[in-house]
From TrEMBL:
Gene3D superfamilies: Putative xylanase like domain (1.10.3670.10), putative xylanase like domain (2.30.260.10)
Keyword Nucleotide-binding: no
Name assigned to this protein: Lipoprotein
A matching Pfam family: AmiA-like
């Protein structure tokens, strides 16, 4: 079994407000601690920081084969939020959290700071401030990415969404509230070679959903490999149940379409 550590984060380090002067994380095993240090040293520090596509490619590849596990974060309307850091198992969203934080980190303390800003609105470690929706990344401060969907394809469709509102008017996530904004996506039928030519390795991809109140049902990272374009993703498919490279166009063709965010 992995030895467990407990990390205490102090507000000046992470930019949290004084009311959250100390935040205790969930237990972090020594495997995760060592992996954070190793990935930063071998895949981030030795690459020019301006080459973010390459850094995201290298960092995300470090997780290939990592087991998929749903609902890995701790927190709910009735349970206090904890800053979960666990590289033993991932869901599709925490995978992007870790990659986005690691790509900007020069040290372990940097990583915790970047993870908080990636995962939480205004760096507030709380359930209601968690960035629950993919498009939060391009709408909620601090921003993780910008929405480039409309720049990728002239066939982009814009839909007004009331995020978190079910068809019957209730909330998917109680106490979170409902937010209205326009969501842009490229329908799957138009995801072709032309679209691929405008995507960049490291682009964050959301699989658009027509379900009212939600923006995406899955996320991943666009990577151009020597064998073609792939969606690098923490897959919940029974045949996978781990982080894999899925052929991009065949995968997307079986979905409503894609949202494209580009890392800042």
């Amino acid at each position: 079994m992995h030895k467990l550590l407990t990390v205490i984060l102090v507000a000046p380090l992470v930019g949290c407000s004084a009311k959250n002067s100390t935040i205790e994380t969930a237990n972090i095993d020594d495997y995760t601690t060592n992996r954070i240090a190793n990935i930063i040293e071998t895949q981030v520090k030795n690459v020019d920081a301006t080459h973010q596509s390459e850094i995201i490619n290298r960092v995300s590849a470090e997780f290939l084969g990592t087991p998929y596990k749903a609902d890995v974060l701790i927190g709910s309307p009735t349970e206090p939020e904890k800053l979960v850091v666990n590289f033993d198992a991932l869901d599709c969203f925490t995978y992007l959290d870790y990659v986005n934080a690691l790509r900007q980190s020069g040290s372990e303390s940097d990583f915790f700071k970047k993870l908080i800003s990636t995962r939480y609105i205004n760096n507030d470690i709380s359930y209601t401030h968690r960035k629950h929706f993919f498009t939060d990344w391009s709408h909620r401060q601090p921003l993780n990415a910008r929405d480039v969907t409309a720049q990728i394809s002239s066939h982009t469709v814009v839909v007004t969404k009331y995020l978190n509102q079910r068809e019957n008017g209730s909330e998917f996530i109680p106490t979170l509230g409902i937010v209205k904004w326009d969501v842009s996506y490229i329908p799957a039928e138009f995801v072709n070679d032309e679209v691929i030519s405008h995507l960049k390795t490291g682009d964050y991809i959301g699989i658009y959903t027509q379900i009212k109140g939600l923006d995406v049902t899955h996320t991943g990272i666009f990577i151009m490999t020597p064998n073609g374009a792939v969606l690098r993703n923490a897959s919940s498919m029974k045949k996978n149940m781990k982080v894999v490279d899925s052929p991009f166009v065949p995968y997307v063709k079986n979905t409503p379409g894609i949202i494209v965010l580009r890392a800042l």
